[in-house]
């Protein structure tokens, strides 16, 4: 007997705009700005606009690889309304271990970057847990 995967076992390869905004935390207007700027690839199927997961992953990896002077909080506030960005950061910090909190205020740039990455990883893992998807795959 042939095993056919259940719908819940299949990872989507494209998302509609609303779902892409939800999983990235980027507002709809900002998301359309990114599309117009060529930062996010889209596929049109009739009246439906689909965003390939690969395009979202590339966008997020570019955002994380930009060292620069901007902190994660500044990049998050630039991508979405400051009120929501602050709420997300506050919630993440409230549950973050003391070690991460200490490194976030460290004078050592590499420690701050590691702490930001750890905080982002905890946020992403939290989103997957909230969705009930405990088998997150990394690309």
Please characterize this protein's 3D structure.
This protein is mainly α and 139 residues long. It folds into two domains: 12-65, Multidrug-efflux Transporter Regulator, Chain: A, Domain 2 (Orthogonal Bundle); 69-139, no CATH class. It is 59% helix and 8% strand. The chain has helices at 17-24, 28-36, 53-65, 72-79, 82-95, 98-104, 109-131, and strands spanning 14-16, 43-45, 48-52. The protein has a three-stranded antiparallel β-sheet. Helix 4 (72-79) packs antiparallel against helix 5 (82-95) and helix 6 (98-104) crosses helix 7. The mean pLDDT is 75.
In short:
The protein has 139 residues and is mainly α. The protein has 7 helices and 3 strands. The protein has a 3-stranded antiparallel β-sheet.
Question: What does the secondary structure layout of this molecule look like, with pairings?
Answer:
Layout: E1 14-16, H1 17-24, H2 28-36, E2 43-45, E3 48-52, H3 53-65, H4 72-79, H5 82-95, H6 98-104, H7 109-131
Antiparallel strand pairs: 1-3, 2-3
Helix pairs in contact: 4-5, 6-7
Write down how many β-strands occur, each being a DSSP E stretch of 2 or more residues. 3
What is the overall pLDDT average? 75
| String of helices and strands | EHHEEHHHHH
Figure out the total of helices. 7
Provide the β-strand percentage band.
Answer: 5-15%
Largest sheet: 3 strands, antiparallel
Number of domains: 2
Shape: elongated
Distance between the termini: 31 Å
- Oligomer kind: single chain
User: Pairing-aware structural class of the strands and helices?
Assistant: mainly alpha
List segments where confidence is low: pLDDT < 50 over at least 5 consecutive residues.
none
What's the Cα radius of gyration?
17 Å
Strands of the widest sheet, in order across it, are 1-3-2
Q: What share of the residues lie within helices?
A: 55-70%
